[in-house]
Design goal:
By secondary structure, this protein is mainly beta. It has no helices and 9 strands. The two termini are 19 Å apart. This is DHCW motif cupin fold protein.
C-alpha cells in the first residue's frame, strides 16, 4: 500500500547516465517495487543499450523516438505515452533536441 504523497521533483537528486551519445539525467523515487522517474535526455541522446524492461513512458516536453530492436520506430511528442511489458519488445530511446519524460515501472508490468 502506498499512502498519499506529493512529489517535489526539485528536491530529488539527479543522477547522470551516459548514453551511446549524450546523457540521461534521472530523478528517481522508489516505493517498494514501484519506480517513478523524471528523466531528461540531452540533445543528441542515444541509449547505450536495448532495454527489455517494461515501462509506462509519458512525454512531458520535447520529442523522442522509441526504436525497437526489430527495426520499428515510434515518434512520441509532448502529451504522448507508450506502454510495454517486461520482455515484450526490446527498445531504446533516441532524441535530437532533448526530451523530458515521466517513466513508471515495476512488477505490475511483468
Amino acid at each position: 500500500m502506498i499512502p498519499f504523497q506529493s512529489i517535489d521533483w526539485s528536491q530529488i537528486t539527479k543522477t547522470e547516465h551516459p548514453g551511446e551519445t549524450g546523457t540521461a539525467y534521472w530523478q528517481t523515487l522508489e516505493l517498494g517495487d514501484l519506480r517513478i522517474r523524471k528523466v531528461t535526455y540531452s540533445k543528441n541522446y542515444i541509449a547505450d543499450h536495448w532495454c527489455h524492461k517494461g515501462h509506462i513512458v509519458h512525454c512531458l516536453k520535447g520529442e523522442f523516438t522509441s526504436e525497437l530492436e526489430n527495426g520499428e520506430h515510434f515518434k512520441l511528442t509532448k502529451g504522448m505515452t507508450y506502454v510495454v511489458s517486461d520482455n515484450a519488445s526490446s527498445h531504446r530511446s533516441v532524441t535530437q533536441n532533448g526530451v523530458e519524460l515521466l517513466i513508471i515501472d515495476g512488477s505490475f508490468l511483468k
